[in-house]
Automatic annotation (TrEMBL):
It is a multi-pass membrane protein. It comes from Laceyella tengchongensis. This is Membrane protein involved in the export of O-antigen and teichoic acid. The chain crosses the membrane at residues 12-34, 54-72, 84-105, 120-144, 151-173, 179-201, 222-239, 251-271, 291-313, 333-356, 363-383, 389-408, 420-442, 448-471. Pfam families: Polysacc_synt (PF01943). Its main location: membrane. It is found in: Cell membrane. GO terms for cellular component: plasma membrane.
Length: 488
């Protein structure tokens, strides 16, 4: 058992190399886009990405997730290959249909999607066509992952992300093609990598359309679409809302904030990768609920304190990230709220550990769909009044709803003492302190460091005052940690 768990951690870490490397490199290249694009063009880039993301969900229709099941369920290598071909053929065909639509109706679509006079008649068509290559890559690299081909997965994952970004920068900086240049680079880079992968996997592709195999894939994958749409709504829909309901410049600021806040994922990803196998490996221990409770409370405290400390030093980091470009300067005020949303998203996997153990993951999906509806309605109401604050505040509210919903449902299936009431009191104090930090920063008050120390002191004191942790709790952690290696 220990060897299996060790292998799981090892594989997770190996596959994480490409994911984390891609996010880091992509984030490092964003300042170049900010420098060489106008604020309006930068907002247009984010606007286009919003539509290409939902296009990917609609075209893939969960068949990539279905392949993860049928790769191992297939009775033979021939059947497995048939599943792969039909998954790719279906997704590519769907994407080409959308591309053709965007090509023939490019002008009226551009008038609806974009708010200013750029020549974007064929922008969505080019972006959708580039997505064809990305979908082929997604399917084939997924197949490589299931086959345990770690280095092939890592090399080509990084090749297509980094290569496409560098090509995009060439078209933006040298050719001066603006937003179109970004997607020219993606089209060339992703098509090239897709062709190389098709050549490498040519023996794995059985050119045989099968209604049965395609039906299996869609029946398994399509029910996941509502959950994916919920994720899309909570992560992307605020972009077009700000773009059309507030201002293009606000949309540009939000895009820069989102790109910077995404770096936080580099910190949370290792925990997410390790948590699932770790939590399942100890589920039969008598003290498992106690361990889950400690992890949940510990992650909340460490994560929120880290968010607060990050907020203290965010302004120079943000100014460096955005190259000090006029019009984008206020974005640093909002990054902590987006980072807190990322933390809440990680926490739901801990508060819902019992649902994972009991295999009731549909309940978690339901929580996200409820939160997505609240998020969309909240943004519609708040963005016209509070602009960017309306969007970022709803990010915190929506993910908090997920946490509360998942927690209450988890307690029905697998009770864990998270000291949830103490958590909510602590979060209230933390949010009050962060609102104060934001007020001090937005008004550029002198000696801000003094308030920072007070806010940090109050937050740390709240950890103990609410009963979330005590000195005895830390002693328990010290006694429990050595046991983790003694029982698999």
């Amino acid at each position: 058992m220990k060897q299996l768990i060790k292998r799981l951690f090892s594989d997770s870490a190996a596959f994480a190399v490409a994911t984390m490397g891609n996010k880091l490199v992509s984030a490092m290249l964003v300042p170049f886009y900010i420098k060489y694009l106008t604020n309006g063009q930068f907002a247009d880039w984010g606007q286009t990405n919003t539509f290409t993301l939902i296009l990917t969900y609609l075209c893939v229709l969960g068949t990539d997730t279905a392949m993860a099941f049928y790769y191992f369920d297939a009775k033979s290598a021939q059947e497995r290959r048939t599943y792969l071909f039909n998954a790719i053929a279906f997704s590519v065909t769907m994407c080409l249909i959308f591309t053709a639509f965007a090509y023939f109706f490019g002008a009226p679509l551009a008038e609806v999607v974009y708010d200013h006079s750029g020549d974007y008649t064929y922008l969505l068509a080019v972006a959708f066509l580039a997505t064809v290559g990305a979908i082929i890559i997604q399917h084939l690299l997924g197949y490589a992952r299931y086959a345990g081909r770690v280095w092939l997965f890592n090399i080509f994952s990084m090749a297509y992300v980094i290569g496409s970004n560098l090509l995009s920068l060439y078209y933006v900086i040298v050719q001066k093609d603006g937003v179109m240049g970004i997607f020219y680079g993606q089209l060339v880079g992703q098509t090239a990598v897709a062709v190389l992968l098709l050549i490498i996997f040519r023996k794995e592709l059985v050119l045989k359309f099968s209604r049965k195999h395609l039906s299996d894939l869609i029946k398994y994958g399509a029910p996941l679409l509502p959950t994916l749409m919920a994720f899309w709504a909570m992560s992307s829909i605020s972009r077009p809302m700000l773009y059309h309901m507030s201002s293009i410049n606000d949309a540009a600021i939000y895009e820069a904030m989102m790109r910077l806040a995404s770096i936080i994922v580099l910190v949370t990803s290792p925990f997410q990768l390790a948590w699932r196998p770790f939590s399942m490996s100890i589920k039969d221990r008598e003290d498992a609920p106690q361990l889950y409770g400690l992890v949940g409370r510990g992650l909340l405290v460490v994560g929120t304190v880290a968010v607060m400390l990050l907020a203290f030093v965010m302004e120079p980091i943000y100014q460096l990230f955005t190259t000090g470009k006029p019009g984008l300067g206020s974005g640093y005020l909002y990054v902590w709220a987006l980072s807190l949303g990322t933390l809440f998203n990680v926490l739901h996997t801990v508060f819902g550990v019992g649902l994972l153990i009991k295999k009731k993951t549909k309940i978690i999906s339901r929580g996200f769909m409820i939160a997505a509806v609240v998020y969309v309605v909240g943004c519609l109401l708040l963005i016209p009044l509070f602009r960017i604050w309306g969007a970022v505040s709803m990010t915190v509210v929506a993910y908090l709803i997920v946490i509360i919903y998942v927690y209450t449902q988890n307690q029905k299936e697998y009770p864990v003492d998270f000291r949830f009431r103490a958590m909510l009191i602590y979060l209230t104090i933390f949010l009050a302190a962060m609102i104060g930090v934001t007020w001090v920063q937005s008004n550029e008050l002198p000696n801000a460091w003094a308030y920072y120390l007070i806010a940090l002191g109050v937050t740390v004191a709240a950890v103990f005052a609410t009963g979330l942790f005590s000195v005895r709790s830390f002693r328990q952690i010290g006694r429990l940690l050595p046991k983790l290696g003694g029982k698999g």
